[in-house]
Every structure is written in structure tokens, then in C-alpha cells.
Amino acid sequence: MSNKPVIAIPLGDAAGIGPEIVIKALQDPEIQASARCIVVGDRGVLEKAMTYPGIRPMPIDQVADPADAADDPAALHLIDLKNIDLDRLVIGQTSAMCGQAAYDYIAKSIELAMSGKADAVATTPINKVSLHEAKVPYIGHTEIFAALTNTPDPLTMFEVRGMRVFFLTRHVSLRRACDLITKERVIDYVHRCKAALRQLGVEEGTMAVAGLNPHSGENGLFGNEEVEQVTPAIRQLQAEGVDVVGPIGADSVFHLALQGRYNSVLSLYHDQGHIATKTLDFERTIAVTGGMPILRTSVDHGTAMDIAGTGQASAVSMIEAIRLAVKYAPHFRKAKE
Which of 20, 124, 127, 245 has the fewest CB neighbours in a 10 Å radius? Predict the structure, then answer.
């Protein structure tokens, strides 16, 4: 049996581009050479996707367990949950059926990773409206993973071209994000981000904390968050021996990280880090969920319902998500031992 990392791939929303990008990604020579991918999905949906324009069909190896997968990198190895009625499936439209199926694919993939049958999960896009229509009690991937792995507050890290960005705050208003930037929170997150990096095998290097205000507030001239909260937090962390610096102005910190000066950046609010990473390379910006007992990477784009079924969807992000899972899986496994 191959010693390549086993990557579980939940199919995502069956009416979106997930099936297309999975098929395309699994035909990439680098992915075939480096990973044993197990798709958790619906056979009928995949066979339908193989008829879309520009999609090259591939053999499906249907299995009940990853260990049963044939040693054939050119095949699509599938755990078929048989939970989509093709007569009711409308490509490009949200539905409770697709929302429930997408949740089921994720839950099964998490089960595989939690039991050690998969080394990582690389997720495809899901649709929040479909989840809501299915009455799934979670708004998105992170919340599902948090609940099913019993992780109270998972960390989100973006990686693109070797630059890693964590987020102190995410889906809250900008006003609320400013209120959440406290000394205690910065200290807690730096410790947790450092621990998450160690899980990925990143032991060396300095973390930088981004500034909030222009020029990090210029000692209080343009805002007092740095003076009152961020700088005291960093000084305390440094006194504890933590390799962290800042606050570094947000107009330069990401460039410096890309050049290799810092091994990671703690972004203080959602758009600060998203703009930096996605402007650099939108398709190759990959989300890594940290602080969990399993490794999860993900594309950072949506279901693209407007082009679903046309064969136009790019698989670059899916390929990169699998590649990153393969990169970190051995380190993650070692950290758990």
C-alpha cells in the first residue's frame, strides 16, 4: 500500500462547482503522484459532472473504506453516500437536499480523519443558503468542524506563496472588531497561533502582529489601540520568551512576511488579511483551520452557482488545497504522536 498521505475530500454542494473542480484536481499529475485522495460524495453527481463541457471522464473506484481503495492514482476513489436524487437536482440552484448532502459529506470526512483513516480533509465549497434550507444548524465549514471535533474556537490561517496569515477577529463588524482588540485577546491568540504553527512543523521564525491604525497609530496620534492594548500584549509575550514583534504597520507587514522576515502575521480584522492574501494570488490563497485534532485545508471561494455545470470552473484552488494538505500532513501526524 502506498505511503502517500490520505486526503478526504467532501464533494461540497452538488449544485455548485465542487464536483467539477474535484474531478479536474484529481487528474492533476502532481496530485496523483503525491496524495491518495478519497472523495466523499454521490456517484450520480460525479458521473453527471463528467458530462460537462471540457470535463474529462475518469474511472470511479467505489469503496467503503479508504483502505479498500485500489492502488490506481488515475481513478477517482469514492465513498458513495447516495444522498442526491438526480431527478430533483438543479445545477446552479440552492436546495435543502444539496445542503443536507454537503453536511453529510463533511461529517463523514471528519469521521475518517478523527479515526485516523485519513490524514487530512481538503474541503470544497458549500452554500450557506442550502445549509439554511436544510436546517443544518451551522453557518459554514468552520462551525461544522468546530462542533464535530469538539473545538470551541478554531483558528483560521491563510497561506499563499509561503506567507501565513492568522486572524484575531473575523466575521464581525469593523466597529466590533476594534472593541475585540484587547491585550488579553492578543496574548491568547499569539500563543494559540504559535501552537498551531508547531502542529504544522513550523518551529522557527518570528510572528508579526499587524497594526490597526495608520502607521500603527503613531504613538497614539491616530488611535490608541496599539498603545493601550497591542503593544503591552507584545511586550508581555516577549518577556515570556515568545518570538513575536509588532505592531508592524499593515501597509508593510505583509510584504515583509512575503519576503521571509516573518513566518506568520496576526491580522487584527477580517479584511486586513483577506485583502493582502487575495490580492497577491486569489486562487492560491488557501485556508487552514488550526487548533483542531485534525488537519483541514480548504479552497477559499464559493460555489459559483452562476457557472456551475459549464465546465468553466478553475481547479487551481482545489489543487492547491490538496497540495497544502499533503505538505502539512506528515508534520501534523508527528505532532500528535
Answer: 245
> Looking at the structure, do residues 133 and 52 belong to the same domain, yes or no?
yes
- Cα–Cα dist 245/60, whole Å: 50
CATH number for the domain spanning 219: value is 3.40.718.10
Which residue type occupies 79? Answer: I
Overall residue count recorded for the chain in this entry? 337
For residues 292 and 192, state if they share a domain. no
pTM check: above 0.90: yes
Contact 123, 331 (CB under 8 A): no
Compute, in degrees rounded to 10, the torsion defined by CA atoms 48, 44, 39, 81. Answer: 160
pLDDT tens sequence across 197-226: 999 999 999 999 999 888 886 777 777 888
pLDDT for 10 beyond 70: yes
For 72, list phi and psi in degrees, rounded to 5: -140, 95
Kindly tell me the burial class for residue 53, based on how many C-beta atoms sit within 10 Å of its own C-beta (0-12, 13-18, 19 or more).
exposed
